[in-house]
Design goal:
The complex is a heterotrimer of chains A (329), B (281) and C (364). Chain B has 281 residues and is mostly helical. Chain B has helices at residues 5-41, 47-51, 65-96, 100-112, 117-132, 137-162, 165-173, 178-206, 210-215, 233-241, 246-275. The chains are: A mainly alpha (329), B mainly alpha (281), C alpha/beta (364).
Chain lengths: 329, 281, 364
């Protein structure tokens, strides 16, 4: 993408110092690249510092439990025995459930707002969806306790139990609070992130692409599918990853509706417990070095799970959006 | 085998209706939450809310004026710590990010967006509060800024990458150096989209409670400057919402409503700031 | 456009700046040997238990009316948080429901005193639409419900003590606290005292491995579940049950009487137990006919030797006030006042507070 400058008489010759230190043609570019690199490095440094702090904090727990921490299901602060498997399951399951709900809806909203909605509707609806992001976690949690969970308990879960009860997903006691409530609340919380960023990404696609497809006889949806989505693929993946990150790290709202039982169950009606929740719930009151160390290790595991899910999500979305006939410009 | 036109038309209509339904489904919880917050909070919004300090249970007329100012301070600090580094890091990723270092930066941003806010709070606590031996608004701002970084960085990167190359080539062809091209042409074009990303980040941190508990703490009185613990709307909402008292609950809902309106206001300001610079689209 | 931008920025800065013009707090450094005048401006911070937060807010507000220059900032970040902050000296005093353990106390840079400041009760609340009177529970039944052995409301053991209640044939939904909490510590302390099996299998703590039930976050979370879901049972602080009009069960105390969690019953529990020199003790399952069995103290944590004399004296005076004049606010907020004979011991300990060589409370 760089234009060849070597022979143009319009460009000043480079100073000797610049020639030594880099490929830039002037001091402005030199400083620009180094400064932005420094700030980008800040991100890496911050993450490394956090990871190092967690590693240091979890040293005691790592040495005492080793791999058993990841495979054991017993979390007993009274006896100082800790195992994080139910939390790992809870985090992964609730985040994936949230993505299952949120990604189709968010993409639908983004396509609606960028392609289909009349101009007068775009502003207000877009605004309203972003407003979802402004609601504090606590408020979502309280709404979940008083509005969502009772609705699930009286309407949705009995319906699912009756119609799809042969699946282990929909069996068991219906209390409203549980994995399903957790997944739904997370989905609601990450929808504004995914849809807003996706909408901006779709808006940034040059209209020439869209118009070209339409001019060749595509229906509006086909124009989007063939011309716009492949071009926007990277951005859409980025939006989903941001949403996933938010889902993994959410604590307050989800702990108020997910039932907080460290058990692994196949049913969506059963209560569960996430890693972020257990840290938030128990950190303030935890005393005792092994207890605190176990909580730090849970934080470390959350890092690991985030990394793994990131990789998986990226591969999945990349695959799915590699549609036939598509390709970047 | 080419599909018949009728079939393609039907698919088109089906998918378009699905998108409309998606938008409606997304709005249902919003309406429900807004209704919930407004119906419970509107009663608590009065002049005292914006001018009085909190009062203990049993005394009427308390307000959250210090929390409102505190939130503004914290959001301001968060923007100072989060936006410039975030945008510039995003610029780096978009311009020079194909190297191995760039991959590490992108990876860090993605992983950091998944770190729970309480972990960031604890991290900033050991970094700032333990060193200064007291809680402060400054520490709170740092924690919120760190929370904002990944969203701002990645949004900036993705939107910068989408600006057509033709703009860049035109600017370079006119003799602008690379740094000027990026900052004044590409960034300016992508600005409205980046503003959306920034506002998303701001909206999220404006409502965060957990990190503030260990950094900015809270304060029943006014806090002066940036070096003292400060009250904030989300912490007050949390404290009041988990109390047993109905009148504190009312205040919590009122505070939630005010917080929403505040974020809305910030959103509008951001759009106004950015709209005037970028081209129309 | 430039004007618009600068207007917005200017607005923001004005807001920040004008609130920055409050008078600065008291000078931090002061002559360590002199005790300062009464009206010097002081700022104190404290952190700890959530349970006494409403009472301490009232104290702070009332004390500030009497002494406008003393500003106290107490935040409820949890007992564990309070212990950690006071140990790290980022706050001037801590508050905890469960007393500090030996190894925690060793980590503090100085000697920390436990000052019992108020008394609270953990009540067993429930949601039974068909039952109009108060449920009566024996310790054995309570343990069995939480252990998962009694599963239905119309179990014969429940019927035995509640003959005239229309107990339904529904499953009992048990609710516990998922977050670490002094309430859980007090509740499990009681269960362990009345059931050796519970003590062995589950134990006592701020977080335990519950055999059955659903975890809710905070007293508010448990209350929310109790209010919205029928056939649930849970344990919460008294204030939450009374403010939300949830029925509270009467518990059979050690002397065999069914007692409701009234303020008098809480005071009776405090009267019945002798407070040792270390000033902390468990009040659960005390002897006495009028005693409510799940009662506990809540403590303030104060350094015996204050590094900053100005702050140390201000704190000592505040705590003294709280233990005397502050107690009259207890009843309205669902707490019980400290009994007189305990107060005598606490006063003696408070008089030992010092900064260096100087005593902080001379003839207060």
């Amino acid at each position: 993408m760089s234009v060849s400058h070597d022979v143009s008489p319009l460009i000043r010759p480079r100073s000797k110092i610049l020639t030594h230190f880099g490929r830039e043609l002037n001091w402005g570019d030199f400083v620009f690249r180094r400064t932005t690199a420094l700030l980008a490095g800040l991100l890496v440094a911050a993450l490394a510092a956090m990871a190092a702090a967690m590693l240091h904090g979890s040293a005691e727990s790592l040495s005492k439990f080793g791999l058993g921490f990841v495979t054991s299901q017993v979390w007993d602060p009274v006896r100082d025995v800790y195992g994080a498997l139910p939390f790992i399951y809870g985090t992964i399951a609730s985040s994936l459930l949230a993505l299952c709900f949120a990604v189709p809806i968010s993409l639908g909203v983004a396509i609606f707002l960028s392609e289909l909605a009349p101009a007068w509707l775009r502003g207000p609806v877009g605004f309203l969806v972003e407003l979802l992001a402004a609601v504090p976690s606590v408020v979502y949690g309280l709404w979940g306790i008083f509005a969502l969970a009772p609705w699930l308990r009286t309407t949705v879960e009995p319906f699912l139990g009756r119609t799809l009860g042969f699946l282990p997903l929909f069996q068991g006691q219906q209390r409203g609070f549980g994995m399903l409530a957790g997944g739904i609340i997370l989905a609601i919380m990450i929808t504004p992130t995914i849809s807003s960023v996706s909408r901006e990404v779709l808006r940034a696609v040059p209209s020439a692409l869209r118009e070209g497809a339409l001019g060749l006889g595509a229906t509006p949806w086909e124009a989007v599918r063939v011309a716009v989505l492949p071009y926007a693929r990277s951005g859409l993946v980025g939006a989903t990853i941001l949403g996933l990150g938010r889902a993994l790290g959410e604590t307050m709202a989800i702990t108020m509706v997910i039932g907080n039982r460290s058990e692994i169950s196949a049913s969506l009606f059963a209560p569960s417990y996430t890693m972020a929740s257990v840290i938030a719930n128990e950190f303030s009151e935890a005393t005792g070095s092994l207890y605190l160390s176990a909580l730090a290790e849970v934080g470390l595991l959350l890092f690991v799970v985030t990394v793994l899910l990131n990789i998986v999500a990226r591969l999945l979305v990349w695959r799915v959006s590699s549609l036939p006939g598509g390709g970047s410009l | 085998m080419p599909k018949s036109y009728a079939r393609r038309k039907v698919t088109d209509i089906v998918v378009r209706s699905a998108c409309v339904s998606a938008a409606l489904i997304a709005l249902v919880p919003l309406v429900s939450v807004l209704y919930y917050v407004t119906s419970r909070g509107i009663g608590g919004i009065n002049l005292e809310f914006f001018s009085e300090l909190p009062k203990p249970v049993g005394e009427s007329g308390g307000g959250m004026a210090n929390a409102l100012v505190g939130t503004l301070k914290l959001v301001f600090l968060a923007c100072v710590f989060g936006i410039p580094p975030g945008v510039l890091a995003g610029v780096y990723l978009a311009e020079f990010g194909q190297s191995r270092f760039g991959k590490w930066v992108r990876f860090s941003a993605d992983v950091m967006s998944g770190v729970p806010s309480i972990t960031v709070g604890i991290f900033v606590y050991s970094l700032v509060v333990l060193q200064t031996k007291h809680f402060s608004a400054f520490a709170g701002g740092v924690a919120l800024g760190v929370l904002m970084l990944p969203t701002v960085t990645r949004t900036t990167e993705e939107l910068l990458k989408l600006v057509p190359e033709s703009l860049r080539e035109a600017a370079l062809g006119l003799g602008l150096p690379k740094w000027r091209t990026t900052l004044r042409v590409m960034l300016r074009t992508a600005a409205p989209g980046i503003a959306t990303g920034v506002m998303l980040a701001v909206a999220r941190v404006a409502g965060e409670t957990a990190p503030l508990l260990f950094t900015a703490f809270s304060n029943p009185f006014w806090s002066s400057g940036l070096n003292e613990p400060t009250a904030s709307l989300p912490v007050n909402i949390y404290n009041y919402a988990v109390s047993p008292y109905e009148e504190w609950h009312r205040q919590a809902w009122a505070a939630a409503l005010v917080l929403l309106l505040l974020v809305l206001l910030l959103n509008v300001c951001a759009r106004l700031l950015v709209q005037s610079r970028a081209g129309a689209r | 456009m430039f004007a618009r931008r600068s207007l917005l920025v200017g607005l923001l800065l004005t807001v920040v700046a004008c609130k920055g013009n409050q008078p600065a707090p008291a000078p931090a450094a002061s002559d360590a040997t002199s005790i300062v005048k009464k009206d010097e401006a002081v700022s104190l911070t404290g952190a700890g238990a959530t349970f006494p937060y409403p009472l301490y807010s009232k104290w702070i507000s009332e004390y500030n009316k009497l002494n406008p220059d003393v500003k106290i900032n107490y935040q409820s970040i949890g007992s564990g948080g309070g212990i950690r902050q006071i140990t790290a000296s980022t706050v001037d005093f801590g508050a905890t429901d469960a007393p500090m353990k030996e190894d925690e106390a060793k980590q503090a840079p100085g000697k920390l005193l436990h000052i019992p400041a108020t008394i609270g009760a953990v009540v067993v609340a429930y949601n039974l639409p068909e039952v109009s009177g108060t449920l009566k529970l024996t310790p054995e039944v309570l343990v069995d419900i939480y252990a998962g052995k009694i599963r239905k409301w119309n179990d014969p053991k429940l019927k035995a003590d509640n003959a005239d209640a229309k107990l339904p044939a529904k499953d009992i939904s048990v609710v516990y606290r998922t977050d670490g909490s002094g309430t859980t510590a007090v509740f499990t302390d009681y269960l362990a005292k009345v059931s050796p099996e519970w003590k062995e299998k589950v134990g006592v703590g701020k977080v335990v491995n519950w055999p059955t039930g659903l975890g809710a976050k905070g007293n508010e979370g448990v209350t929310g579940q109790l209010k919205t879901t029928p056939y649930t049972i849970g344990y919460i602080e008294r204030a939450y049950a009374s403010q939300n009009k949830l029925p509270m069960a009467e518990l059979k105390n050690k002397s065999g009487k069914f007692v409701a969690p009234s303020i008098e019953a809480m005071s009776a529990a405090a009267d019945a137990v002798e407070v040792p020199d270390q000033l902390f003790v468990s009040l659960s399952n005390a002897d006495g006919e009028a005693v409510y069995p799940i009662t506990s103290y809540s403590y303030l944590l104060v350094y015996e030797d204050a590094k900053d004399a100005v702050k140390g004296q201000a704190l000592a005076k505040y705590v003294w006030w709280g233990l005397h004049d502050g107690q009259k606010f207890s009843k309205d907020l669902d707490y019980a006042p400290i009994p007189a004979k305990v107060l005598v011991k606490v006063e003696a300990r408070l008089k030992e507070l010092r900064s260096g060589d100087k005593k902080l409370l001379s003839g207060a």
